């Protein structure tokens, strides 16, 4: 009999270990996939550029013949010209020449490869095609093809094709990343072993949580380092191959003249040719030609060129000597090409910052689920504090995943809806109304949600929410009509509104009076953690699997949400309605604990007989309530939805920020808001007045928006500081988030504890009315901001003007407020 509990406990240890290891496996899988995606996005570009340089060798020889006025069909020696390239370069399997009607003229292929000309005509444009290149890149399922035009003095007469098998690229990437996969598996095994002993120790009261976090972080960065090393090897190989190919291409153009015994000093246009190579190949730093060791031609000034040559450790370089075969005593020429290693470092930095963003995102996922696992290991008795903690922890992953699913598209949704509008023939200006309808659905759904929960209970409503989330994700992936999308976005907003009320009701029912503040804090953290992590992950995934792929990922996660709700969310008794029939709301868009909301006493029984209209009229008559609403609450909500959710991704995209960078930048808003949650209570205690904190919040928001608006200011762009525009935007977004964190909870505290109407109709009712009316700013924000952007031609400085208005509103609010420090105005 005694062995049964021990066996059950051992099973519990194994289950928790498996779940904890699975969480790390998800984080490492995302890391692996992002690194692999970066490799497939960047490495083929280097190889394609190398193929172009190889093709230029053949092109130069053929065009020399064509410029003599001879037809391409009469060119002799094609096989002898292309054989060295095909035999020496493993990436080149076919070189052919076709006329303008795609009729084959010449062909030479690597041994073992046979090609059907019909299949060669079925190539489509490749994503590797650069807008500024003088050659085209196409592909089919098996090959990449570089297409170079062949022209005589007057017109184009044909095309040169160079083919490379995709398998060659795949094998090199697999070779490097197979090692990363092995390192990842070893890391998971190490973590699983440690986690098993961690849960055993924890069950005996040991405090090893910090050590487990250290192991998790160490293993994550171990795998991240392995990915960086793999990318370094790949990119170094690609840059070197391209540098060598460009050098070989240039030397071949000069070699023909040297073989004839001609002096290159008698030729014009060599410097122009070198300049064109540098212009068309941004990775090339400079090219020089030397005659018997003396500098003859260079794309840089002699002083700069000498300095660049001296700094050998900062460059990939390749040098080819040109020595005429028939006259070994003739001048010795040498072509030197250098590519800066900064290109490699830039590509690696782009990957590294994505890894850091993923680490932060996966870290929040880990915190949520590891906290839940910790609660499960305790096995508390009902009625104890540990049991209460467990019940609160059960809802955390549900709310986190609910916010996560909705936030996956935050970084690209405005751009996606703009494209949908164009394809549907709708006005692009209507995109903002999609966001307005989303927040309208959010606000309207919260009104009947409380009554629905009161009638049906929390769990059925939450299960309905998760089921609706699955449907919404599927619709987002499949709906291609802009006008149908209105219904989808309204439903998405309604689901988030009901989710908010449902989780809040669960927290209020499960938490004792002393735990309600903790429950409010938990909701704020879960919401922002879900939004922050999903914004980063969604932005990265959109690059590798496309926008539609992200929505299908959201569908899968929403299905997990359904399963989690059915398995782990318990049924709770209905939540009673309070004051005027409005559900009490815990704030989400600001990362501050709504302690006042959690501690608000229920209104006296006689107040419950009042109608909603009576409460609303009394609240609006209160000057302090109305002033806070007009100059603090509504502007804050309008800026949150109009700028942060709608305009910011559009402006960043317009300024050339890539998708994953937009997601990373938007993370700083949530980070700023979370940072505010840690200090705003202490700030209010120190200042003694909530209204001072509200002014600091509006001023900070205004300052942040002013900085964001400067991203395209010429003075900023002219500063010789790397990434200055990005630094200004990140700083501005962080300050904006911090400012909003200072507004959200203190504004509710201010109206519930310092207004006369709160004494008349009750603090809970006033708080609910304030939050409900405040959401009109949330609804109007996207429309107002879109009109301002339209009037100003989408000028980012529009954000600065909005920021200035925020500061002015804060000053108007501050003027006339009593500077005394009443006890009721302090946050406890």
Question: What is the fold's blueprint, element by element?
Answer:
Layout: H1 3-66, H2 78-88, E1 94-99, E2 104-109, H3 117-120, E3 124-125, E4 136-139, E5 143-151, E6 156-165, H4 166-203, H5 209-259, H6 270-280, E7 286-291, E8 294-298, H7 302-310, E9 315-322, E10 333-340, H8 342-378, H9 385-407, H10 413-423, H11 431-456, H12 458-478, H13 484-510, H14 516-568, H15 595-599, H16 612-621, H17 623-654, H18 659-687, H19 690-709, H20 714-718, H21 724-753, H22 756-761, H23 763-791, H24 797-814
Helix pairs in contact: 1-4, 1-5, 1-8, 4-5, 5-8, 8-9, 8-14, 9-13, 9-14, 11-12, 11-13, 11-17, 11-23, 12-13, 12-14, 13-14, 14-18, 17-18, 17-21, 17-23, 17-24, 18-21, 19-21, 19-24, 21-23
Q: What's the quick description here?
A:
This protein has 24 helices and 10 strands.
Strand line-up in the sheet with most strands: 2-1-6-5-4-3
CATH superfamily of the domain at 608-828: MFS general substrate transporter like domains
Distinct helical segment count: 24
CATH architecture annotation name of the domain at 608-828:
Up-down Bundle
Q: Can you characterise this structure?
A:
- This protein is an alpha+beta fold and 828 residues long.
- Among the domains are: 380-576, Growth Hormone, Chain: A, CATH 1.20.1250; 608-828, MFS general substrate transporter like domains (Growth Hormone, Chain: A, Up-down Bundle), CATH 1.20.1250.
- 69% of the residues lie in helices and 8% in strands.
- It contains 24 helices and ten strands.
- It has helices spanning 3-66, 78-88, 117-120, 166-203, 209-259, 270-280, 302-310, 342-378, 385-407, 413-423, 431-456, 458-478, 484-510, 516-568, 595-599, 612-621, 623-654, 659-687, 690-709, 714-718, 724-753, 756-761, 763-791, 797-814, and strands at residues 94-99, 104-109, 124-125, 136-139, 143-151, 156-165, 286-291, 294-298, 315-322, 333-340.
- It has a six-stranded antiparallel β-sheet.
- Strand 7 (286-291) and strand 8 (294-298) form a beta hairpin.
- Helix 1 (3-66) packs antiparallel against helix 4, helix 13 packs across helix 14 and helix 14 (516-568) packs antiparallel against helix 18.
- The protein is elongated.
- Residues 575-607 and 819-828 have low confidence and may be disordered.
